[in-house]
Amino acid sequence: MPLSDPTAYSHGSAPKTAILLVNLGTPDAPTASALRRYLGEFLSDPRVVEIPKPVWWLILNGIILPIRSSKSAAKYASVWTERGSPLQSGTADLTQAVAAEMARLGHHVQVRYAMRYGNPSVASVLDEMAKQNVTRILLVPLYPQYCAATTASTLDAVTAWMRRSRRMPELRVLNHFHDEPLYIEALARKIEAHWQQQGRPDKFVMSFHGMPARTLKLGDPYHCECHKTGRLLAERLGLAAADYAVTFQSRFGKQEWLQPYTEPTLRQLAKEGVARVDVTCPGFSVDCLETLEEIAMEGKEAFLSSGGKVFNYIDCLNAETHWAQGFSRLLTSHLQGWNTTVPADPKKLAQTRERAKALGAENL
Ligand SMILES: C=CC1=C(C)c2cc3[nH]c(cc4nc(cc5[nH]c(cc1n2)c(C)c5CCC(=O)O)C(CCC(=O)O)=C4C)c(C)c3C=C
Ligand SMILES: [Fe+2]
Ligand SMILES: [Fe+2]
């Protein structure tokens, strides 16, 4: 494959820094054909499904895609808004909020987002950055807990692009932020705001996306990082061990996944006489199908139909102001040594200020 040369090198050009937020990706429409494309790309990633390729190709194309595409399309249709997929609009909003906050903090950085699967692709955003002479990239997979299926896969997409680029940018990667005080604090504030309005539940459930159980034995730190987030958040909220549970949702296929599973736990709690549960999903940066449909709709139905009385779903952090501020402070600490506060070009600085103004930075 020929190496790409988007712009000619010129002497004396100042370093340009970008923050690239990457989320999982989502279908372009809630239709079976869009789902087939999206799931086909997602589930063909060997980081996501670790089964020998030829066997998996047959199962995926012969069974999973024909059946799951239309089933999943109906689920997506139930959460789709006039802005499209919640994952897409939520990621765009978070990006804009972080861009505004970084500008307010005086950083001259581009903040963009890409999707690991679907659009805008990681390669297309990196191509655009290269054309704009971006020379330093802070890569931020939007997963607080490290997992090979998500975090490492995001880096795979970036390194695949780098393999065909002549002039590689400097690259830093935010590996995880599952125990960062700024993240735990933002989660705690969100929960506390809810409890100030509604009082405390009988049980607080923190539901994380599941993974095949064998990945824990193979050394993936994901399970431990989910539990650490759960423990830190519970401690910050003053909860005793009996007041909360850490569970895993979105099981896929027949093999064992990380336990306890969210939905059976909700049913069990209701049967044990727990009247009210509050559920939140700290592993998802923005609300998406997995939180809005699987938890807020299906999880609620499971709990109430098993005898539970009150089910509250507490949203993800999304683009909350205090999270955009906390996240930007966290990202700033990863920019250390890259001087982003001295403008290279006064004209560009004025443009950045105008852009920040247009993005509402003054209100943050
Ligand atoms: C083997 C299959 C899957 C693994 C492993 C997996 C890991 C994993 N996923 C997320 C985050 C998200 N997953 C989402 C949707 C989704 N996940 C799978 C399968 C696996 N995920 C499927 C098939 C789907 C599509 C929906 C469906 O058909 O059920 C989403 C939501 C995307 C959206 O558009 O809203 C997110 C986010 C993590 C964090 C993770 C491992 C830790
Ligand atoms: Fe998933
Ligand atoms: Fe563990």
TrEMBL record:
UniProt-recorded Gene Ontology molecular function terms: DNA binding; ferrochelatase activity; metal ion binding
Biological process according to GO: heme biosynthetic process
Pathway the protein takes part in: Porphyrin-containing compound metabolism; protoheme biosynthesis; protoheme from protoporphyrin-IX: step 1/1
An annotated GO cellular component: cytoplasm
Top-level class of the enzyme under EC nomenclature: lyase
Keyword Transmembrane carried by entry: no
EC number: 4.98.1.1
Cited CDD domains: Ferrochelatase_C, Ferrochelatase_N
PANTHER family in alphabetical order: FERROCHELATASE, FERROCHELATASE, MITOCHONDRIAL
Reported function: Catalyzes the ferrous insertion into protoporphyrin IX.
Protein name stated in the entry: Ferrochelatase
